[in-house]
Amino acid sequence: xxxxxxxxxxxxxxxxxxxxxxxxxxxxxxxxxxxxxxxxxxxxxxxxxxxxxxxxxxxxxxxxxxxxxxxxxxxxxxxxxxxxxxxxxxxxxxxxxxxxxxxxxxxxxxxxxxxxxxxxxxxxxxxxxxxxxxxxxxxxxxxxxxxxxxxxxxxxxxxxxxxxxxxxxxxxxxxxxxxxxxxxxxxxxxxxxxxxxxxxxxxxxxxxxxxxxxxxxxxxxxxxxxxxxxxxxxxxxxxxxxxxxxxxxxxxxxxxxxxxxxxxxxxxxxxxxxxxxxxxxxxxxxxxxxxxxxxxxxxxxxxxxxxxxxxxxxxxxxxxxxxxxxxxxxxxxxxxxxxxxxxxxxxxxxxxxxxxxxxxxxxxxxxxxxxxxxxxxxxxxxxxxxxxxxxxxxxxxxxxxxxxxxxxxxxxxxxxxxxxxxxxxxxxxxxxxxxxxxxxxxxxxxxxxxxxxxxxxxxxxxxxxxxxxxxxxxxxxxxxxxxxxxxxxxxxxxxxxxxxxxxxxxxxx
Length: 509
Hints:
Blueprint: E1 31-39, E2 42-52, E3 55-64, H1 73-82, E4 105-107, E5 111-119, H2 130-144, E6 147-152, E7 162-165, E8 172-177, E9 182-188, E10 193-196, E11 218-225, E12 246-255, E13 259-260, E14 270-272, E15 278-282, E16 289-296, E17 301-307, E18 313-316, E19 328-334, E20 342-348, E21 353-359, E22 366-373, E23 377-382, E24 387-395, E25 400-406, E26 413-421, E27 434-445, E28 466-467, E29 495-497, E30 500-507
Parallel strand pairs: 4-12, 14-20, 24-28
Antiparallel strand pairs: 1-2, 2-30, 3-5, 5-9, 6-11, 7-10, 8-9, 11-12, 13-15, 15-18, 16-17, 16-19, 19-20, 21-22, 22-25, 23-24, 23-26, 26-27, 29-30
């Protein structure tokens, strides 16, 4: 195929058409071409070629726990969007280094995910095999002059700059989401090859000496496609005139496994009952050990070593069984033999609550309430048989005025309204939660038939009151923000050639 031929037709001299870059001579300028297939001088078929430059969209880095596996690019995209893969910084690290709000973080040990958008690239990778896809992508970058670099930006004065080999097929895999032209490079940080790179050249320039990732190491990552035009084709047209290659960049800081205490958000003081444990969650592997310390104002310190459970949670008794109302604590969670860690304020309060409630309009299916509480709480509405028909997911620790509980399929009759102490502070009624003493009242509920919507009941497998037809969320629970990775969308199939792309659409004869 000679792309320099005049006219709109391009021909192949082979007896058969084996489409591939090795049959092209020269490089395509961006634009629209007509490809005509001839046999014995007669037109057999005609194709339209749309030639464009590969583009990179967002380059995003995130992390999840060690030993996390994925099956597809679509699954990774969902995990990025729902926060299962953490893409924002400001985490609660267990080490004594600095992580600022807004920093993108990579957990070590953990699973790093590098996501990027790139249209007209799908031909270069094997979408059916994630391991082969990474090898194919690395080969593509190598022959087109592209690069994926991750170079340290804060080396210590006595050490050379580090570089991370993100393209090592023995360490990672590349997953694709064809519908969104999105790619996910996934690797276990324990398998990554880290080398000492050259300060001027950056990467790879390895000196053969292995390097290690340490908490607080900061890296700048850059992905560039077709930096030299690729395929050793000299005529790069617009690129030779100085156009910037398609590229994107991001940065990240390496962090220890984090421990976020689910009992309270970062800047909020937790209120505990006497003898109540601190509950937390961590990305440390199940079976790992954490140290939990509780220091009182009088200098008394209680230290507990706890084991991380199968679901990443832990709890520690702070020795507050005999603590008086108002006892203040500073709680620290850290790794054994390490300083720093996650620190929170806490105070012991005797559980106490008051409640008043009434039905708000027969047809509105709501119960209005006012409550004063000493701890984070839930307001629960139940029928006479114990079935829960409404939950207010969180009344603030100091109380709530003018709260409303929407009812799900409640039958006419007497409803019991009760304030529960949300012991595990998850915004959901479960077996861990206990009612306050003397914080319950009843209301009469008699909605009109025209005002009631039929809501099917569902069974609950938990002990105690059952939640019926109600989904409960905790709007104040600590969350990690996520940055969706938008795709370009697939309009036509794409094949990249020499920094440009051939998009083929059949035109009927």
